[in-house]
């Protein structure tokens, strides 16, 4: 497959202090960007699997396999790690078991709990997604997109937002 060259980087204008209303608008714009990025991530995974001639998995299922990784967990634990809704996880896990990507078995200590782990076929899918993400990271690194602001600082900021949202959810209940 031919290598794609990274897109050119446009300089980011310097940030200046902003009023609270503008900060709120920026936060709302961030939420819209997050939604678009999530949909684009799914499209990228879908396109990759179409290129590989694999139509048996949807992007959510491929990402679920990626996020399951080498762990053996319950559906609840997987849901708490990822971006999955309750019934969505159960439905997709059932499909992945049927397709032979995930092995499941009842817990010895709690017969209600089902533990899941990847089969060899599931590990192959995880490896394809890992390679896709590594290729993207390499392209982004070369382009300089991850430098201004540094991706580590961006991640720190999003982890802070994540903690705030988690606290808000706990506060409600």
C-alpha termini separation:
51 Å
Secondary structural class: mainly alpha
Instruction: Count up the helices.
Output: 6
CATH class descriptor name: Mainly Alpha
The average pLDDT score comes to: 85
Which stretches are low in confidence, meaning pLDDT under 50 for 5 or more residues running? none
User: From N to C, what is the helix and strand string?
Assistant: HHEHHEEHH
Superfamily at the CATH H level?
Winged helix-like DNA-binding domain superfamily/Winged helix DNA-binding domain
Number of strands: 3
Tell me the strand percentage band. Answer: 5-15%
CATH architecture: Orthogonal Bundle
Rg over CA atoms, rounded to whole Å, is 19 Å
- What sort of overall outline do the alpha carbons produce when their principal axes are compared? globular
The major sheet is characterized as:
3 strands, antiparallel
User: Order of strands across the biggest sheet?
Assistant: 1-3-2
Explain the overall architecture.
Helix 1 (20-51) crosses helix 2 (59-68), helix 2 (59-68) crosses helix 5 (120-143) and helix 3 (75-81) crosses helix 4. The protein has a single domain, classed as Arc Repressor Mutant, subunit A, CATH 1.10.10. It has a 3-stranded antiparallel beta sheet. A hairpin with a 7-residue loop joins strand 2 and strand 3. It has helices spanning 20-51, 59-68, 75-81, 86-99, 120-143, 151-172, and strands at residues 73-74, 102-106, 114-118. It contains 6 helices and 3 strands; from the N terminus they run H-H-E-H-H-E-E-H-H. With 173 residues, it is mainly alpha-helical. The longest helix has 32 residues, at 20-51. It comes from Paracoccus laeviglucosivorans. Keywords: DNA-binding, Transcription, Transcription regulation.
């Amino acid at each position: 497959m031919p290598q794609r060259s990274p897109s050119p980087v446009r300089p980011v204008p310097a940030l200046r202090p902003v009023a609270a209303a503008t900060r709120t608008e920026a936060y709302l714009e961030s939420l819209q960007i997050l939604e678009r990025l999530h949909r684009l991530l799914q499209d990228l995974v879908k396109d990759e699997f179409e290129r590989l001639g694999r139509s048996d998995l949807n992007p959510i299922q491929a990402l679920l396999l990626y996020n399951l990784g080498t762990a053996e967990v319950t559906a609840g634990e997987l849901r708490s790690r990822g971006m999955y809704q309750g019934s969505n996880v159960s439905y997709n896990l059932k499909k992945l078991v049927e397709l032979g990507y995930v092995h499941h078995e009842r817990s010895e200590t709690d017969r209600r709990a089902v533990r899941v782990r990847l089969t060899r076929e599931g590990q192959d899918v995880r490896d394809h997604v890992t390679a896709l993400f590594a290729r993207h990271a390499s392209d982004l690194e070369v382009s300089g997109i991850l430098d201004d602001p540094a991706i580590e600082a961006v991640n720190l900021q999003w982890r802070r937002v994540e903690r705030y949202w988690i606290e808000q959810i706990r506060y409600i209940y």
